Amino acid sequence: MLAHSAPQTLSITRPDDWHLHVRDGAALQTVVPHTAAQFARALIMPNLKPPVTSTAQALAYGERIRAAATVAGYSTFEPLMTLYLTDHLPPDEILRAKDAGIVGVKLYPAGATTNSDAGVTDMRKTYSTLEAMQRANMPLLVHGEVTSPDIDLFDREAVFIDTQLIPLRRHFPALKVVFEHITTREAAQYVQSAQGAIAASITAHHLLYNRNAIFTGGIRPHYYCLPVLKREIHRQALVDAATGGSPRFFLGTDSAPHATQLKEHASGCAGCYTAHAAMELYASAFEAAQALDKLEAFASFHGPDFYDLPRNTGQITLRRESWTPPQSYPFADTSLKPLGGGEVLHWRMA
Ligand code: DOR
Ligand code: ZN
Question: How far apart, in whole angstroms, are the C-alpha atoms of residue 46 and residue 66?
Fold first, then answer.
């Protein structure tokens, strides 16, 4: 029955990815074309080594990404660039960044995740810069986890809301905030009901999986990311948020490539690579919630509306078709294993 009534194709306005890691150098040649094949724009995370802390660095990095897209035939792909907030990012850099079209400034609490050592050690050290951001209408993009070792890893996002985010937003009520890659019911509820300009991005993997995925039949490092996958009740809350139609929730893959040997390691890196099939994965999650009709607004409208950017005009089409992404892609001089590689997907980009 379902097979006959279920739609066979889905055409939507071309989407954007509001949270993406592409790394640098030769790695760009693999990962940028995957994203550019699906998305018109992607918001590029600045957690390189060393981090992207100046407008000049961000612009140069953006040019390298554009070049990698162009070589692969995607010359209209637009990387949207961000700066990395440190304890010492000067307030006047915010004005330069705004003038140059930098789209946001990323807060990594020091030690929270990959390449966050240069992140913020104490929010008060950033207040003059946040003040400049509030005045310039420059969004703050937040990795929302506390880092103290006495807080359980699975509670770090919820504790961050109470101890960091609420006080911060009280101090800077007009600062635009994106709570990035939310993973908990608490975060979804907070974003849904908070006052002022706040939104959240949600990854495909947090819509599709709960924390059992990391431990099924043995430890599965390719399902390890930060913030880590949570319990099923949280996954369900994220699905409700993503499919509920609220303009405060939008697509951000957090696709985060790492070389295979650094994932399959005694101390494996955090990050799930999903750019190879991002829209297919989101379509699966929305279809499972019987909400395919809500995918377009989540993927293509809510993000640009929040960032005050125009919506895209082109379209993409997803077709119902079973296919199997490869287990591995070449990645600079090594390899990269995509999430769910070698497993059947039921939607495919036309
Ligand atoms: O899982 C993650 N990977 N979470 C992050 O916050 C960073 C990212 C990365 O850069 O690999
Ligand atoms: Zn990320």
Answer: 15
